[in-house]
Design brief:
The protein has 256 residues and is α/β, with parallel strands linked by helices. It is built from five helices and ten strands. It is 26% helix and 21% strand. Helix 1 crosses helix 5 and helix 3 packs parallel to helix 4.
Length: 256
Amino acid sequence: MRTERRRARWWAVVAVGAGGAVLVGTAIAADPGAGPEVQSVTAQSPVTAAQTPAVTERPPAVEQERQEPSSVVFLGDSWTAGYGASDRHGYPELTGEALGWDYDVLGVGGSGYTLVGGGGAGSTYAERIGQALATGSDVIVVQGSLNERIGEPGALAPAARDTLARLAAQKDADTRVLVLGASYNPGTPAGTIDDINDDIEAAADAAGLRFVDVAAQNWTDPADPTIWFDPIHPNDAGHRLIADRLAELLRDLAEH
């Protein structure tokens, strides 16, 4: 399939007074973190203030606020490794600096969901899940990979499903994950990138993870010669474009 891309709690208080007088009250907490607010009290028999025992109020609960992200780890291919950028200072570093977050970079040239890359000494994305989680980062970004264009036909879909399902199952509940598809580039047919992204999007959806089709959103225009280092890698300007878009996305992710 081809995705269309241009796309009171209630509680009761019973107080027994001297002489058997009974006070019955109800209360409701507006939300799980708020303390009870007494709505009404009805006396079943007359009592005096002296006869009424002290009622200890429930201390207000401290609401656990979701911690805002302050760190991110990037898992990806040569784009994540900074190929094409001066001193390999690519989009991950630029994004982390723009956000003011701590960051880790786990990029391996030539790798992907099915490919180890690194001249054969690298690792697939699945094999780097443990490294990504070990950083303790609040956000995990999984990028690419256009390298799947040279992978075994039919292998990407099950590999992506397994990788992203494992990541979703093993991460902490508060850890956000953002899955980025492969980007259009001058050296790869657009249809090939679309096919790759269809498989990755389906895998991300199945795992309940957010997917962004950066190709459909044209983060890096393949027709713009000023942003390319070579036919498949962005230069400094291209990495900056990616970082600008990604930092905006991660700020939005932090607020929701």
